[in-house]
Every structure is written in C-alpha cells, then in structure tokens.
C-alpha cells in the first residue's frame, strides 16, 4: 500500500461540478504531475462537502484546510504554496460569512473550529466528503460493513430489531414513524418472501439530502439495507431512485457491484445462512411516488397512485408480501447504531427525538447547502450560526420547515427546538429537513402561489379531496395575488384545508394545506392587505404597495 | 409517425419487449428504454408494447401519461426543464423563465419551430443549493440569471 503525504479531497457533488470542479481537478492533477508530486499526493473526488454556495471546494489533509470558491489560478497557488512548500494559502481558506457585514474576520482557524462545522455532528454524513464513494475499500477502512458483520455473526434478528427500537430512531423521510416498531411488524409476519425498499424518490422541494448521501456514501445505505434485511428476514432489497438523479443511480449500482464482488451481498453472506441482494430501480418523474404505497405501485409497473391503508406495507406491500420502506437517511443511521449501541444514539439530540438530522438550508441564507446537526437545534442556530445569516443583513420573515408540505414559521419561533414532536404541535413538520428561509422582501401570497401550484401539479388524481382541493386552493391564492379575492374566499380556504387534512387518501393531500394554514394564522395582516388591494412587499403586480403612512 | 421510422425501430422495440417480458412490474424500465428509440412513445409503439406484454393499451397509456419523464408526443431535440418549486421561485426562477421565453420565442409546453427546444416546467430537481436551476436533457445548470441562461442557450 502506498503512503501519501497529503490527500486532496475535491468535492464532486453536483453543485461543485456545475461550477467547474472537474476541470479544476484535471488542472490539479496536471500541476501535481508537473511538480512531480504524484507519488506523494493523492487526489480523491468525494461526495458533497456541504457548503454548496461556496463551491467549488476542496480540502487538503492532514491539515484539514478547506479552500472554497476556487478558480483555476487558485489551483496553481495551492499546488505551489501548500502542496509543494507546505504553506496554507490563507486568503483562499473557507470562512463562514458574517450575517450582516459579510466581512471576513480573524486568521485562518482549523476547519473543525469554524461554526459551520463545529455545531455539526456527523453520523449519517460520517463518510461524505471524506472517502472516495466509488471505493468499497475506503468505506471498509472507516469501519464499513463491521456492523453488518457483527449483526449477522453475533446477533439474532430479534436482537437487531430490539437495538433499533431501543435507539428510538424515527423515519427520516418525513413522517417520523419509529423505525424499530416498523421493523418489528414485518419481522413478526411469516412469509416466503419479504422486501426491503430504500425510498430514494426524493422530490420534496428544497430537499437534496438523499442525493448527496447516495453520491457521497453509497455503501452506508447498502449496509443499512442488508442489516434491515437480516432483522426482518428479507432476502431482496430494492433502491427506488428518482429518474432525474443520474449520478446517484450510477454510484449506487457501482457500490452494489463492489459489495457483491466482496461477498457482502449475495448468497451466504460472511459464511452465514443470510442471503441478501439489492436491485436499483428508477422512477419517472412523479412526486407522489415518495409515498410508500405509491412507490410500491410504481415498482409493480403501475401508475404511482397510493393504496388505501391498512393493510400497511409492513404486512402486505410489494406483490402483496411484507415490505419495509425506509428513507435513505434512516438506513444510513443503522450501521452506526449497531456499532455504537442504542444508548449512544439516544445521547444525541432530544429525549423523544434522538439522533441527528440532515438539513438542507436554502433560500435567503448565506451558507446554502447540507448540514447534519443534533435533533432539537433551534431555528435561530440553523439560520444565524450554521447558516451564516441572511444575505445583505435583511430581516428574517419566515422559515418553511420540512419542505413544501411543511408549515411556515415566523420569527417568534426562532428559538423553538427543531424536532418531530415540537414542530407538529405548531402545525408544521420537520419532514425531510428542508429549511427554506425567506427574508422580508418576499410576499407571503406570492410564495404560497408557488407552493400551491406545486401540489396542484403533483396531485395524482386518485382521491377527490386532493385532486379538486389542490386546484381550488391554487385558484384562490391566485385570486388573492390578483386582488380579486374576498373574505368569503379566505373562509373557504380554511374550510377546504381542514377537509383535505381529514379526508385526503395520502400524505400529499393531507399536508398540502399546511403552509397555507400556518401563513393564514401567522400573517393574517398580509392576507387582509391583499383583500384590500395592497401587496405590502410590492411583488403582486396588480396590487398597489401599501403607503408608508398606513 | 411515418412508415419508414416504424420499420427502423421495429427490431429494437421487439428486443426491448422481449428483454422485459419475463420481469413482472418492469413496465417503467421498459418505457424508459423504448423512449430512447424515438424520443417519445407514439400510439403505435404503445399498442405494440401492450400486445407484446399481453396487457391492455389503456394500461400502457395510463402509465406513460402518469409520469412526467415519459412523452407521448414528439418533443424538441433538447428538453429544457425549468424548476418552478419554491426554492427556485424565491431566487429568481421567474426572470430565468422570461429570459428563455424571450430568447426562444416559446412558452412552457411548446417546441421551437426548428424542433430544437421544448420548454417545460418541472417540480423540484433537488438542485436547490444552486437555485434557480434548469436541466437541458441530462445536463444540469444552476445559479442562473437572465444573462447566464441566455449564454447557456447560445451554446446549443
């Protein structure tokens, strides 16, 4: 094995690639060769490193110096000064931005001390940006497949289910259902065939965590699936990835092949009686397929329309067989829980919602991108510390938590802990972990128009409350933005929303009114202004801007 | 659909149907692959698939029209998908849309007269870190402004 003096990890996440990371990597390799450093310095393309807004980024180890916003000339400097002469190029080192002034402060500090990273706790993203996702050896070198080995050789299936149940891990796809409980239903059911499905049909607007986990650490998901298979007695796994995620599909397929070649998937895994195989299937563009029964319909080659529950998939799912459907992030938590134990997991986060959560921060926020923090972090910490505040020092208007199906919270909620329980109490949701930050230059009605149009487009049409309801909600919000709505329509919005929450067949229709209801509740004045023909933010074109005196 | 193109694609279509026939539930995978042949799924092609798999035409049509990545009418050589979800919306997707409409002279759902571009809306592409974003066929473009998107289009 070759020992390298330095490792340069170049972010190969989509945002960085878009900004030219591949060209920079080629230049880096060329320069390293020019200085004849190829035997001493290893360049690795990794999954997303996190600060997407500051891409392209790379990290040089062992120093842990992260360079951001790179241009070709910067690469020349980094190679000459850092890699050749051993001096960190201070002016290129990544620093979190200050919320108002935007000025850099202080001298370069080790990466881990920057707030952006110091508040983070990486469990799911433990390997993202640290290893080459296309190399199973690098995954194994970081304790990869150790949990699977432990599970199949030293634990019974029941013990594995119990460990996961004791950890209190909740599904990270949106609903937050206890994973251990879900597994226990399927484990108890007798059947000749059971399935483990990894739900990677990520479509919640504002969410791209699953893509980055698949791109950055595909083996973590495979290991989680195999352990799930062992726990419930399933021999077949399926990863359902949305059709638009080309790189994820490629990475997962490659990782499955490597794991199969190493005997970590297939027949008689690690010399035991446990068999487990994984197939990759892709969707074809339908948000509703993120709902577990719609996903199963799609896998059976049908229109992705949700089924009536019960029976739940855990009892009768794919082809009528017991089926576990778990989100990518949920599965990526499994191996660390087996290795470190449920007590360790419960020591992170809050009492009722332990563990970490991967959030995607976006919208009007300085550090757009992906972070993993302990459950229960406050919105303020996410926005102003990890997220670096709002650009231009503008004011915080609201945050939509949990993606487009979540609710909108105004500044009074900045100090509320972010976890499943607390957020659902105020009519919002933690959901997929998307945090859309909206500053005070935006109009509530205009933003809602975009939310409602989304549901209108994505409703599958199977049940009437959702098919008709999403269209009517959109029409009324549109009328508000054009100044043609009246009090009656506001009343209608509330009534219709309540009816949809109670009667829609699946989560799509039930959660579609969340953002609307929270906004009606917290921003009543702004709706009233629109009824009076005024748009305080001056965004809705047909309306006048409220005069200063009013 | 002309007779000539039918003759060219027939052997391919038959092979694809044969490949998937034995796998239950593989209709989506089959449609993905068949769409590669002509860029869309014509009525004639859908009828052949139904016949080949022994399922009803309405089933094939129902599935093909449910998912946004399947096309049942010819499209331009390049499909521009513009994300209209909230994260792109608040970062200026409207301006980008207007710039595309102005440059190409088409609205969402339309194809340019030369058959080069089709413009359509899409829900979130998961590229929110670089919003506003579009996809042109398999290629993604992010951090767009009206000027940048015009530049991108000029390169086609």
Would you write up a description of this structure?
The complex is a heterodimer of chains A (550) and B (156). Chain A has 550 residues and is an alpha/beta fold. In chain A, 41% of the residues lie in helices and 13% in strands. Chain A has a 5-stranded mixed sheet. In chain A, strands 2-1-3-4 form a 4-stranded mixed sheet, covered by helices on one side. In chain A, strand 3 and strand 4 form a beta hairpin. With 156 residues, chain B is α+β, with helices and mostly antiparallel strands. Chain B has a 4-stranded mixed sheet, with helices on one face. In chain B, helix 1 packs antiparallel against helix 2, helix 1 runs parallel beside helix 3 and helix 6 packs parallel to helix 7. The relative contact order of chain B is 0.12. The chains are: A alpha/beta (550), B alpha+beta (156). The interface between A and B is large, with 56 and 39 residues.
Question: Characteristics of this structure?
Answer:
heterodimer; A: 550 residues; alpha/beta; Glutaredoxin; Rossmann fold; Ubiquitin-like (UB roll); 5-stranded mixed beta sheet; 22 helices; 13 strands; B: 156 residues; alpha+beta; 4-stranded mixed beta sheet; 7 helices; 4 strands; 12% strand
